[in-house]
Each structure stands twice: as structure tokens, then as C-alpha cells.
Amino acid sequence: MQIAFHAQSHKGLVRKLNEDACLALPEAGVWAVADGMGGHAAGDVASQMVMDMLKTLVDSAGKALSPAMLSQALQNANKALVQYSQQQLLGSMAGSTVVVLFIQQDRYHLLWAGDSRCYLLRNNTLQQLSHDHSQVNEMVAQGLLAASEAESHELANVITRAVGVDTELEVAVCADECLPGDLFLLCTDGLTKELPDHEIHQYLQHDDIADASKALLHSTLVAGAKDNVTSILVKLQSISNVNLNDKTIPLNLKNV
Question: Where is the PPM-type phosphatase domain (predicted)?
């Protein structure tokens, strides 16, 4: 088996700064995206701090890396951001959403906080693996709001969980089996607020994930790209299907 991936980040057409960040550590089976918030470049600092904490942990853990360790790295980032806000921002908040994909042996592990998302395309069916930690998503879950009305609701930008927002961080997790042909999409809400799921599904059907990734970004820019846009595509594929234009790394799903 091989893992192919393509990562990209763009500041969009409205924002002056790119407060998103991404991380690709294929040798360790780790990919992540983060969406910073706080203004005055605090969001930029926040998202990069989360990525740096993850990279430091992965580099030091080596083959002992585990989902619990990745969760602890996010907890460490949370404490560091709370301290940064108190000491450097006079109490103003620097926070970040995050979603982390960890592929280990024949399973994937997902960790997240906020509304950055992970999708899985399997057997031509697109599934959102993460669920948004947002005000409108909670309203939908409680039956107070129709799902079709969520994106246009006045509270659509209010998230209920993120790194650096509270002294305690609850990291959401899920895990399941990996299958050959699985395609994962990690992305910030700059993409999902511009493109509906059915359009994302359409672009992910490209055989070349680099083309699929570029198509996602192009369509987001055409739609107005009011926010920063960051995405990573990660595909499990057989060696015979590897496109040499993609960044690839060998993966033995049984012996990582």
C-alpha cells in the first residue's frame, strides 16, 4: 500500500492574513489542519502553535506515537495558548480549531475541536466523520433548527469548542478500520462554507488527488473565498494506482 497526499493553504480573497495552518507528517501517519482566531495576528500565532506542538510530540514519540499522545499534545497547546492570551494579549483570546488524522496499522484515528472537518470518501460515498462543535450544530441536534438552515443562520460562525478558548479542552475522538481506496479530506471552514457537500463529493472523484485538491481550491475562490482556505487530501492506494505527481510514502498497514 501507499499513502498519497496533497496539502494546500490560501488566504482567500477577503482576509489580509492567513490564520490557517496545516501539518503533514506522512512518515508518522499524521496530518492536521487548524483555523486560528483572535484577530491582530493572534489567530496566526494560535494555529501555528497547535501545529508546532503536534510536530514536537510526533518527532519525540517516534514509533511509540499513539492517539492518547496526540490528544495530550492538543491539551498542551491549549494550556500554552491560554497562557499566551493572558500574558501577551492582555486577556484577549487567541484560539484555534483543529482536526488531526492519524493512520496507524490498519486503523485511522481522528481527533478534533471546533468546526474544521474531516470527510471520508469510501466506495463513492462521502461521509463527514467529524461533527462541528458549533452553536448551530447543537441547535440542529436539539431539533431547534433544520440542517438546511444552519449555514445561513446568524450564529453560524459561533463555535463552542476550540484550542485555547477555555482552561479545559475536551478533544473529540473517533476511530475505525482503514480500507484500500479510502480518501480523507481535512479542511477548515473556509472551504465548507463556500462549497456544499455534494460539490465536494464531485471534485473528490478525480483519480489524481492533486487535481482534486486544486479543483476544490479553485471552486472555493470562484465562490468568493471570504475566509482562509486550507485542505489536505490523504489517499490509501495500491502501488499500481500511484500517481507520481502526488507526494507519496509507502505504508504497510499491518506493520507501521
Answer: 2-236
Q: DSSP label at 197?
A: H
Give the C-alpha separation, 174 to 185, whole Å.
Answer: 15
Q: Where are the domains of the chain?
A: 2-250
- DSSP letter (8 states) at residue 159: B
* Residue 59 to residue 75: CA distance in whole angstroms: 17
Which residues, listed in sequence order, are joined to residue 24 by a DSSP beta bridge?
A: 31
User: Identity (one letter) of the amino acid at 253?
Assistant: L
65 vs 58: CA distance, rounded Å: 7
Q: Are 162 and 172 in contact (CB under 8 A)?
A: no
* pLDDT tens-digit readout, 193-245: 999 999 999 999 998 999 999 999 999 999 999 999 999 999 998 655 445 44
Supply 45's cell numbers: 500565532
Q: How far apart are CA 117 and CA 137, in angstroms?
A: 13
Q: Answer yes or no: CATH 3.90.70.10 is held by domain 2-250.
A: no
Contact 142, 189 (CB under 8 A): no
